[in-house]
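Running log. JK asked me to keep both predictions on one page so they can be read side by side. First protein, sequence followed by its tokens:
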Amino acid sequence: MISPLLTDLYELNMVQAYLDRGEDKEAVFEFFVRRLPPRRGFLLAAGLEEALTYLETLAYSAQDIDWLKHTGRFHDNLLDYLKAFRFTGDVDAIPEGTVCFPGEPLLRITAPLPMAQLIETRIINLMHFNTLIASKAARMVLAAPGKILSDFGLRSAHGAEAGLFSARASYIAGFSSAANVLAGVRYGIPVAGTMAHSYIQVHTDEAQAFEDFARTRPNGVILLIDTYDTEQGARKVVDLAPKLKADGISIFGVRIDSGDLIAHARKVRKILDDGGLKDVIILVSGGINEDVLLQMKAENAPIDGFGIGVNLDSSIDAPSLDCAYKLQEYAGIPRRKRSEGKATWPGRKQVWRAYDLDGRMAGDVLSVETDKHPGETLIVPVMRGGRRLAPAPSLDEIRARAARDLARLPEPLRRLEQGVTYPVQVADALVKLADEADRHTAGK
């Protein structure tokens, strides 16, 4: 469990001020992404289930209250409020695995103001990172259709929780497995792994290392062949295969982790095929991103799968999203921020999505939730009074939704073409509400 004190101090400061002034009317906050990073054309929503679990379980222990008290920063009314705190608000959201775009609320919180404010930091933390990684993973899935993709990035993730969330988010996007064992325990994600170069180096003979490992791990044997000489390693696999086969052990694949992966894969494929091992697959790892995947696809590289590490778990080319959790309504009055470059649309919103005759996404409309537009509505109620409205969907169900939505992307977005903008129209009703919010702010 993550401590509820994993938050920004200013959340507690504001809640203290709200309580002192009696500001506890109903507030509406929405989490959304302002704009896409360069080279991104879409987002894949993720993190909702983690956010709902956080809201369901958020509570302050006696030790938490004692620590806050001894800081001398807070009054008894805040400490008493936190002692009894349970989330009792409403949540509406775009389901996980749904393709979405900037300005569209991924999550809406409706609750008394102190409650809705208090949860801001952790909600952003969960929704931002999961959506960031799912969106990155989705690009890789589109770049390598039909290939095995596995999350190898735990060791380079920015913390243990980030490693877990990366495994889950990438699996939602269409990855087939993760090397993270705890992800298998917690989420039921298939766990995959081979061996490290150190295992080979421990042995004085590479072929003996292969044999020892195969006999210890006879199911789905994958051998790492690039410790010394990649092609020589492949030839040793060919020589070893009949001996293992006689004992009922089949080599499933080989992995290459260095050098010119395409060139090595072609040479290794020929060695394996000439040696009668046409069914042995080739996996590669090391420096894999969507550009590499697209290049390998274009060159028809004989590679069956990819282990992807830091480029996934740290989303190196775009390590963050410009996102926000902003007040949209308070005490029944629409509110908006007008800061330069960060202006918001007020009110409780809905997104309507239209499709063309081929079933591809054709455009979205963003408006107030009481407006009416043709198309599929994306934001749905998921929690009322602090309780889920339905059991959490399975990871397979979320994964199926992601596959469906990625298949329905316009073809330029599926090809990861740069400079392609998906149309999201702001409806007149929302513009009108923004004018109303501005007049209220001006006191008119």
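And the second, directly underneath as requested:
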Amino acid sequence: MRTRSQSRNSNRQQQQVPPTFVEPFNLVEPIENQAPPVVTMADNRTMAQLLEAPTEGYEDAIVVPEITADNFELKHGLLTLVQNKQFFGHDKEDPHAHIRYFNKITSTMKFPNVPSTSVNLVLFPFSFEGAARIWIEKEPSRSILTWDDLVSKFINKFFPPSKTTNLRNEITRFQQRFDETFYEAWDRFNDLLRACPHHGFSELHQLDTFYNALNSNDQDSLNSAAGGNFLDKMPRDCLRIIESKSKVRNSRNKPVVAKVSSSSSTPGISPDVAELKDMVKALLLDKKNQSQAPAPVKAVKESCVTCGGAHSYRNCPATDGNVYRDNIQEFVSDVINNYNT
């Protein structure tokens, strides 16, 4: 007869699950899935070869797209035209004007099946010299991919923001000079605008600045041509009046500028006026010298060294027949003989 405790133990043993065998995780990838090992070749170069300068890294900064056209060739005459107007990178050079000249040359040449931008990328470096050539050579290799990239980097390098600010200030403070005609003032004003094509001034601002920079005579002339107040006209009419007036280059005579100094009249006068004054002064002096009579020559009176009389010592009565006369004659004879010997 089984007791209650025995039946309880047998039920507990029946509920226990026998342990199962778990295969360990394989950390090694199968051989068929592994990549073949990389076999490095032994470097058999000598010391001299290993120390040689590398031959890489000499690529140009400008990347020229591949030209697949047949018989493409840059003629020598085209290269000569480009090199005749070289850009050196000086402060007074205008990079905008250089771009305009270069575009004018390349626009006359057409190559079948070749984009004009590719031709520009090839030709443009030939127009550099001095600081400009050094700049393009120092640019990172393959950093310029298009013609627009090249123009942008070229302008930003040789036309910095400070130059833009200076030119904008010159345009704003423009004034007609004292010795400047209307045509000359208008031409100089347009030179400033062309030197800074990104000045940002509207046509209205340009016309207003130029009109207020003129002297009163030229302002009255514009008002007369406008039949009233010049500023009452529309901008396109104002521009037409200015262009028409500027065609008359000798609209007024240029005054002679002569600034007289308080200390001296010659240093403050312009060179032309000073030269004219010197010429007039020389002519007047020459005329004065010719008109004057020659001064009379004063006769030399004889004086005797023996008695002080108004006669020669040779004719002195005090020594006539006297020993003094013989001594003097002997002295004179000795002097003459010594001089001759």
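Observation for JK regarding the second prediction: The radius of gyration is 52 Å.
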